[in-house]
Recover the amino acids of this structure.
DNA sequence: ACCTTAAATGTAAGCGCTTTCATATGCAAT
DNA sequence: ATTGCATATGAAAGCGCTTACATTTAAGGT
């Protein structure tokens, strides 16, 4: 593989000049520039990005930590980040944390040791304090779907409470008053805030939050089926079920159907996230659209602006979810 | 951030010695080793992986090119690759090709210019010749779900024909004889081979392949709905529909339901891939399990063995799909 | 023609490591 | 003590770039 030295030799100029034409930041006369370009062409020269990184102290890489590589939610987020960054010639190094504290920390250290210019994290298990300490280090840290007051400029977050509110509100608007709720693990901020929104909507409608109609699931399909089973086994009376994410809603739908429910007439179900398969379900799932792909793009833009001095990018750190009314929820039939 | 030089100074040894204790490949006396370890500990030293890469000509990174970041299929594949590689201390650089020739090529060049130690590709648009030429270069190339004879040692592939055969066979076994088929784009080898399997099963059952009951879809949900629409509009008679992937099967299911079909009694549907949501659909989708996650792991192992000299790994380059009989297909009711 | 300046180009010192080769050290055998 | 050899350590070159600084060249003003 050709090196800059061979290019300089062939073009009859110094290394520095070749470097200059590559980096376009210093003026080089058109004549020499052309000679260099020709030489590069002729040798099929590709700069060694590792050497560039070492010399310039910039790796042009951004680390990303997600909980899981599979799962529609993270996929959309990564797709958003990658496309934006890739267009700017940066690359992404992706790793996983599996929602476990030690694995998340290990993943973060891994990315830092790789000298990423910045890291974008979707962490769930690690503490706020850890993140605050982390961001004092030399690698800029950005947070997805997590809001930490001290790090607010580096957070791209969704108004989960609003989402929770919209979900329940949509059901209330349809005349339901007995509403069961399957939450996510409450140590996860988004799960907590979604529940807050649910409570807010209930309060607004003068309905008391009933702990009996509340179940904590695991954000997976099984959480939804187990939750619904729990409510049914307890012989509770409810006409609608709000789930803190789509996976659980899907599990609940499946369980309901297997137990003779006719959806949505016997039971209205609402999810959260609007993952890709929400629209594949039967009936199609009413859910709250979580613009995670857009948020990913925005995180990338923020990095581009902060870290790579890409001045004129407009940043929006807060995103609002919206209701996607589909067929899994319907007006209450009296 | 501490450098190796500072460690050597603190430990009272030379750079070379520090490097040796890091790389564990040369003997260092226990006494000095301990001094160095202590110094590292005290300084919180983390080696600069960029400098290591430049000096050792090994980046410890593996490039991955997939068509899309989202999409359950690629997610499982990436998850398989990442977990295996990560455990070996390697990292993955992921980029996308969007099934377009120029984007795929660009992505590949991007990964190579990043000096990945190897690249694992899931390419669809690029030609065999291009791949053969590519693999003559200095970066080892591995292919997922694509078989190129000249590169056979570097291919991890699925027996798509067998899969296509199994899908149609399962339907034949249920007594169906009028079977429609929605294929994928025929320039994609897997789509082509799945169709071959379908034909093989028909032939074996003495049924003539009927071009009228054949439609080429786009591997997306719309391909399935359009395909089924086509068959229905043409007023063709068929009791089963085999789709070359799950997305299309899902689209077809949706269309069928919207047009009054009672599934699976009025129409049996079979998909291919067993993506995560196949089990979320209603009725649950009968499909062909594509062990893409395992194949990803295997590709990673192959790289570990070939490129990183991890001798004792057992490699299996061929995978066989299996039938997942679920509820979307059922015996023909006479 | 000569001097002043700005623009273009070259020189060389790093960036933080790995690795070859040379040297020093220790120890057993003579 | 002396030699020989294996083992542990150090010195220094080099990986392919960037960039501060020095030098050359060209252009403009008198």
């Amino acid at each position: 593989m050709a090196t800059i030295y061979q290019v300089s030799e062939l073009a009859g100029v110094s290394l520095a000049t070749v470097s200059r034409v590559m980096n376009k930041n210093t003026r080089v006369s058109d004549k020499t520039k052309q000679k260099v370009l020709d030489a590069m062409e002729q040798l099929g020269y590709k700069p060694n990005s590792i050497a560039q990184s070492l010399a310039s102290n910039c790796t042009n890489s951004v680390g990303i930590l997600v909980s899981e590589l599979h799962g529609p939610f993270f996929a959309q987020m990564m797709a958003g980040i990658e496309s934006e960054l890739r267009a700017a010639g940066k690359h992404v190094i992706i790793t996983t944390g599996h929602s476990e504290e030690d694995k998340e920390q290990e993943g973060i250290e891994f990315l830092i040791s790789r000298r990423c210019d910045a890291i974008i994290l979707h962490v769930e298990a690690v503490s706020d304090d850890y993140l605050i300490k982390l961001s004092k280090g030399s690698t800029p840290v950005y947070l997805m779907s997590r809001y930490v007051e001290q790090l607010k400029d580096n957070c791209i977050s969704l108004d989960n409470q609003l989402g929770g509110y919209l979900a329940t509100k949509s059901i209330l608007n349809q005349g339901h008053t007995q509403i069961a709720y399957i939450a996510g693990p409450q140590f996860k901020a988004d799960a907590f805030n979604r529940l807050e929104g649910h409570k807010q909507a209930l309060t607004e409608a003068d309905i008391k939050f009933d702990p009996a109609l509340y179940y904590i699931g695991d954000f997976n399909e099984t959480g939804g089926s187990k939750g619904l089973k729990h409510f049914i086994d307890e012989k509770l009376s409810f006409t609608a079920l709000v789930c803190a994410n789509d996976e659980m809603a899907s599990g609940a739908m499946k369980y309901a159907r297997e137990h003779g429910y006719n959806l949505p007439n016997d039971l209205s179900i609402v999810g959260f996230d609007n993952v890709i398969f929400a629209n594949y379900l039967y009936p199609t799932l009413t859910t709250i659209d979580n613009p995670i792909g857009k948020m990913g793009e925005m995180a990338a833009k923020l990095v581009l602006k902060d870290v790579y001095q890409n001045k004129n990018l407009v940043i929006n750190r807060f995103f609002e979810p919206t209701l996607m009314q589909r067929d899994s929820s319907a007006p209450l039939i009296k």
User: Anything to note?
Assistant: Residues 3-5, 15-16, 19-20, 22-23, 26, 47-57 of chain A lie near DNA strand D (CB under 10 Å from a C1'). Chain A touches chain B through 48 residues (CB under 8 Å). Residues 268 and 329 of chain A are 4 Å apart (CA to CA). Chain A is about 45% helix and 15% strand.
